[in-house]
């Protein structure tokens, strides 16, 4: 029975794995609100998939089945976040069952019963089965566990039998999708002409002289953009600006913050707990029962807070210490001494120098650069400053190269890990370390340690009392009751200096959050209610530890795109267009680039980019501009273009030198590059095509 229960747990994990893969493969929406049967609306259609209406009842039935399976597998009731995820899974599965199934049927794709047997207990076991029935100790797949489970399946409770049936259904669905994707993937083809074009784009080089007048050289304030110009531009580029149903809100918050009385009450409580912890014979049990946060008894130095790192060195076994405050939480500790762990931890910083490509010459250049930086540090230069300006690891570079604490259990690549854990003290690793990521200059900031501290910890978080909550609500309700329009809202805020207005721009109908406010679904539903008009003020909404009063300030409609929906983007485009016309009109029609620069005056640059290719070439100050590159490579030697507008400015291109890629007999490597690129995008493009073809309409946000 223990084995069956263990398998049951694992099968639940596998079901979840498949469900998550479906979520990643297809993106959907949400459900339950003013248009539902519970919200008083008459339209009970939650969406449309491939012309088929999905009614709320059938959708909810599927969600209910998924929830029952989830609760049977986990042994606990599904929370709101889990239910949201289950709704998402149900919707995604309906897209599979309807939109994808149409494609499968047209092609005659099936998964036979023989295939299913082979996937579950045959010679080609599904990865989901392998994961579900892996030995918990070794991680190896145990085929006998599958066989034993299936032999006993009919003796299990009905919910477990249904769970297995759903699991197999998902296996079949996943295999069908794999077949379909593989069929499309293997149908992609790259011609020799395409491969030859890619080869030439990568290997034909040119030196381009060019005059460049960036748009930013003309102040934005000097260019007046009218609404009629914005309308005209939008009319000409409507296919580039897809509409969305969104709402823009302004709001004020009334935080439920613990007051002085709340803090005093908790401080007195934790002093009482400290005495109890000191006297407790089973301190770990006492701490576990009385703590708001579950904290392990044994902690490594790396996992201690900064103030504890300093304090723990002064602790005496058996002593009780604290309270220490971190944010809104008080901590008290009973110290039980130290022990040695099998795993070491350390802290280090690095500067990563990455080669431009895998070639030996590029690696040699990168190593030489890394050696130069190491020598600068040896000479007294700041490691942190050099990390910020040189490291190819952006995450750590902005922290001066700091990687934080990590353990010698494979958390880092082996050469890096070996170098750090070979050090017994802080300081610079006196050599360059090479890994698959490049060349590392390493500084150990906290040497390896396997000391574990036994700490029975009680953590108590300051919670606002009901009186505090009531006072916050009173203020919010008084504010909401005094305003009915946006003008009154703004006036009331002006009169109350404690309030700050925040703006949430273009909130989609499916959103659960508004800016940093979590669980704000009710506010979003209010904003999208047909009865809510522009400049209307809301009632008081309660969210996580705060009350919110909002005013609706804007709407966008996916079927009626207006200038205001994209005003900033359109204004930038039109402004640059007007700047381009102004720059081109001012540039002389003839002369050398230098003469044109001189006649134009301030703002014009003359530059040269040497030995660049068409695929990845950068034009110095102008950066990557495909239009300018294309025009430059299309010239004959010594030929010059007329002024034209590029991505970020106006150009005049002149070809100084061009070296054609030598003829080669075999374009296979370039054909393979393009083929791999196409195949890697197959899943995404296929999903987009099926969704577009199915004309999916998602109305779940009207219900939930």
Structure commentary:
This protein is α+β, with helices and mostly antiparallel strands and 704 residues long. It contains 24 helices and 18 strands. The longest helix is centred in the first third of the chain and has 29 residues, at 158-186. Helix 1 packs across helix 3 (80-107), helix 2 (56-74) packs across helix 3 and helix 8 crosses helix 23. A hairpin with a 2-residue loop joins strand 6 and strand 7 (329-353). It has four domains: 2-185, no CATH class; 205-242 and 567-659, no CATH class; 246-256 and 466-559, Chitinase A, domain 3; 258-463, Chitinase A, domain 3 (Roll). The model is unreliable at 1-41 (pLDDT under 50). It is globular. The strands form four sheets. Strands 5, 6, 7, 8, 9, 10 and 11 form a seven-stranded antiparallel β-sheet that branches. Strands 15-3-17-16 form a four-stranded antiparallel β-sheet, with helices on both faces.
């Amino acid at each position: 029975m223990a084995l069956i229960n263990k398998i049951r747990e694992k099968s639940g994990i596998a079901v979840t794995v498949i469900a998550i893969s479906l979520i990643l493969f297809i993106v959907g929406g949400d459900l339950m609100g003013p248009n539902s049967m519970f919200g008083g609306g008459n339209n009970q259609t939650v969406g449309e998939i491939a012309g088929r209406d999905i009614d709320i009842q059938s959708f909810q039935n599927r969600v209910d089945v998924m929830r029952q399976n989830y609760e049977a597998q986990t042994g606990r009731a599904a929370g709101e976040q889990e239910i949201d995820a289950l709704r998402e899974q149900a919707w995604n599965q309906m897209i599979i069952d309807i939109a994808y199934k149409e494609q499968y049927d047209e092609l005659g794709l099936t998964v036979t019963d023989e295939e299913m047997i082979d996937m579950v207990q045959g010679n080609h076991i599904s990865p989901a089965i392998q994961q579900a029935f892996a030995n918990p100790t070794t991680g190896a797949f145990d085929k006998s566990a599958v066989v034993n489970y299936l032999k006993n399946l009919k003796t299990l409770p009905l919910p477990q039998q249904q769970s297995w049936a759903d699991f197999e259904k998902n296996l079949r669905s996943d295999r069908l999708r794999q077949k379909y994707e593989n069929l499309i993937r293997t149908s992609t083809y790259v011609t020799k002409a395409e491969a030859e074009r890619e080869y030439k784009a990568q290997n034909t080089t040119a030196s381009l002289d060019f005059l460049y007048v960036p748009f930013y050289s003309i102040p934005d304030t000097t260019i007046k953009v009218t609404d009629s110009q914005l309308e005209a531009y939008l009319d000409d580029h409507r296919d580039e600006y897809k509409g969305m149903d969104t709402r823009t809100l302004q709001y004020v918050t009334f935080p439920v913050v613990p007051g002085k009385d709340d803090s005093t009450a908790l401080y007195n409580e934790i002093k009482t707990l400290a005495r109890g912890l000191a006297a407790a014979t089973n301190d770990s049990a006492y701490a576990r029962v009385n703590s708001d946060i579950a904290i392990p008894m044994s902690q490594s130095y790396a996992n201690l807070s900064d103030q504890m790192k300093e304090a723990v060195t002064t602790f005496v076994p058996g002593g009780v210490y604290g309270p220490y405050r971190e944010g809104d939480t008080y901590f008290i500790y009973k110290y039980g001494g130290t022990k040695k762990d099998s795993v070491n931890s350390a802290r280090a910083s690095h500067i990563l120098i990455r080669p431009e490509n895998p070639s030996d010459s590029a690696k040699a250049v990168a190593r030489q650069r890394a050696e130069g930086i190491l020598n600068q540090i040896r000479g007294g230069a700041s490691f942190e400053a050099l990390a910020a300006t040189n490291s190819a690891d952006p995450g750590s570079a902005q922290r001066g190269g700091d990687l934080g604490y990590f353990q010698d259990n494979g958390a880092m690549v082996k050469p890096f890990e070996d170098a750090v854990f070979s050090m017994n003290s802080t300081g610079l690793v006196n050599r360059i370390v090479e890994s698959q990521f490049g060349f590392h200059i390493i500084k150990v900031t906290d040497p390896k340690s396997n000391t574990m501290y036994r700490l029975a910890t009680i953590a108590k978080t300051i919670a606002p009392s009901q009186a505090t909550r009531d006072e916050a609500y009173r203020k919010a309700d008084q504010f909401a009751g005094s305003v009915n329009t946006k003008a009154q809202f703004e006036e009331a805020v002006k009169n109350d200096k404690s309030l700050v207005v925040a703006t949430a721009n273009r909130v989609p109908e499916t959103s659960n959050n508004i800016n940093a406010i979590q669980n704000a679904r009710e506010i979003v539903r209010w904003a999208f209610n047909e009865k809510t008009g522009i400049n209307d003020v809301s009632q008081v909404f309660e969210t996580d530890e705060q009350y919110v009063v909002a005013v609706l300030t804007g709407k966008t409609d996916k079927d009626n795109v207006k200038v205001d929906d994209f005003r900033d983007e359109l204004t930038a485009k039109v402004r640059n267009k007007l700047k381009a016309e102004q720059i081109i009109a001012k540039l002389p029609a003839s002369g050398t680039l230098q003469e044109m620069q001189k006649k134009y005056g301030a703002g014009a640059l003359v530059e040269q980019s040497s030995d660049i290719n068409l695929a990845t070439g950068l034009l110095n100050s102008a950066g990557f501009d495909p239009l300018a590159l294309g025009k430059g490579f299309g010239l004959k030697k010594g030929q010059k273009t007329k002024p034209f507008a590029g991505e970020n400015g106006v150009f005049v291109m002149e070809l100084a030198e061009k070296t054609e890629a030598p003829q080669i007999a075999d374009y296979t490597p370039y054909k393979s590059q393009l083929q791999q690129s196409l195949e890697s995008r197959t899943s995404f493009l296929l999903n987009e095509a099926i969704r577009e073809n199915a004309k999916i309409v998602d109305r779940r946000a009207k219900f939930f």
